[in-house]
Protein 1
Amino acid sequence: MADVAIVGGGPAGLSAGLFAGKNGLDAVLFDTDKTWMHKAHLFNYPGIGSVGGDEFLATLRQQADDFGVDRKQGEEVTDVAESDAGFAVTTEAGEYEADYLVLATGASRDLAESLGCALGDDDTVDVDVSMETSVDGAYATGGMVRAEEWQAVISAGDGAAAALNILSKEKGEHYHDFDVPDTATSVFGDLIDDGE
């Protein structure tokens, strides 16, 4: 059983996976590779001068993999539901259980609706500032929570907010992911030492 199941492999889902995995949570991420990022070229992402969407995704995927996210590439989620353990995520390959759920499916709100998440007047999924929906422990990110403000950097921030809120709940206090040079050397040094 995972700590968090993430449905979607765009900036929001991969960001949620990266923050969860980097901070010790067992994360499983389902990526059908249908993200809008394949059509994008980023000139407006802070810290990036110019990068194609495919290259950007490759970097995000590598970061998630480096921090131990169990990325199920090409495995499509067909249903999500609350369960005794938290959430059940069903794919064509089987069923997965997780304590928390992050929906990062772009503008598609089907899974959020089937889970029973409240919708706003504009048919977007209602979330609080931490991206949590009306279903305790379920988070919605990116295009599904905004009528038209679809942007990679906003989606990545949504995914990070969801993961940090989950980490705060798990650790019992407000959790911050703020690296300094010594931390970065330690984290990346460990990855290099492990042969990754």
Note: The radius of gyration is 16 Å.
Protein 2
Amino acid sequence: MTSNRWQEERSGLEAELGERITLDALTGPNGLIGREALRDDAGGPAGWLIAQRKGGHRHSIDDVLTAWYALQNSPQVAKHLDLGTGIGTVGLLTLWGMGQGARLTCVEAQDISYRLLNSNLDANGLRSRVDASQGDLRELALGRKFPLVTGSPPYFPPGSGVLPQDSQKAHARFELRGDVGDYAKAAVIHLAAGGWFVLCFPTPQKQRALAGIAAAGLKVVRLRDVIPRETLPPLFTLFACQQPQDFDGETTVEEPLTVRHENGRLTEAMAEVRRGFGFADGESHGGYDP
């Protein structure tokens, strides 16, 4: 069940924004953070929830797997940076995996996403562990270096499709405030020696990502395509990058990760990802919305 603070947070958001807000499970109740189980208000095991607009941009499998790939490639770190964080999905999932001593720094430009991000920090009790700021990542100059930087850039250039009327959806899907190359440039500025930059991008546009990463002065250490369902082509690709002084080899192309079997059931690989975020078999990144 959701805690009282979450119910109050949702009621306040719905009154403020005048629209339906859902509360969805970001992490499950079965995971451990820093070897200690999280507890809800009643003392029982608790996961983290995320408030989302019912009719807005909503987190999906690319966010989950970007965070997972960051945790697969980076060693445990005390701090990391998430670019274009939206409502917080990638950054918070990565924070979960890094343990209780870790801190997250994140930046988001959109008013509505930044508003929801702050609710997600407050209601999950994470304010003391997250430095969130509102601004354009293309102008970001924190003066600090991070051993891990993550990002889930918008996928499509302006004019390549129908721009959604909803501003949150439009900015999440289309490159209205920078493209994948801008994410890579922001990462380079803030990446510590030996650090990792992890991102996702559509597989059909893989060359755009590779070009943007290279232009920023980074090298792709390894990449992995994600297939949404058996028999379908890859949907998006995960990239793990480092600076040239930290990696001078050839890119490793890993075996694709398939999310679902042809019958719709999760593959064991995806079930293992889900277990890593605290969900037991048979559970999903689903909602607590009544």
Note: The first strand starts at residue 21 and ends at 25.
Protein 3
Amino acid sequence: MALDKPYKDIPGTTIFDAEQSRKGYHLNQFCMSLMQAANRARFKADERAYLDEWPMTEEQKQAVLARDLNRCIAAGGNIYFLAKIGATDGKSFQQMAGSMTGLSEEQYRQMMLAGGRPIEGNRFVGEDR
């Protein structure tokens, strides 16, 4: 049974807590396996076959195959582990983050240089005093 988590009320944000960690354990371990060149080669040669070696959920596997990082995070992925998928694909962290926000790498870079995403709509519900 999940504890009361007031931080679940932050729009557009998934907090990587113990529950998410348990949910995404095998997904994150798969990502860490990509730190070894031999595993990256095996993954790139047949992504589905390599994923099927891991006891991940079908949703997690489909999210990886689609390179849908938001789905991966919802399925328990941690962005620092998921970055290994992007690196395997030759993508920068900015490219990955941009894909998660619907922005191009350049648009994402400009948003961050301008101070990040706007605070409007990104607070706890009821936090506006």
Note: The chain is about 55% helix and 0% strand.
Protein 4
Amino acid sequence: MSISENGGKRRLVVMLLNTDPRNPEELAAPFYYAAVAAAMDYEVDLLCTATAGRLMFKGVAAALHVKPGDPKTVHDWIREAHEQGVRLWACPANLELFDKDEADLIEECNGMMGAASVIQTIMDDECRVLTF
């Protein structure tokens, strides 16, 4: 989609590829930044890939807390970003890597975004990329 096809909105792609769910203190920032950008009326896509791809599977983010003792889960951060209009994507390669299928994805996940779509988006669109 080009900038003219998305109503003139500027686009932000947030990629979680170095963020590891085994380090939950790393997990709020990407969803917070994405939610803020969406609230500022940017078109925002967030892709979870590599180990971070596990966050798109049911039960994973719901069991993680950024801060010990905090009742807010990582899934709550994901839900808030989604409610602001962030489109959340899983990497198709992660399904095979973790022996999962699309039925295992959380409700907030919009589906799959493969490598070709990512490359086309960041090369063809007027967008910015944040990586975590």
Note: The mean pLDDT is 93.
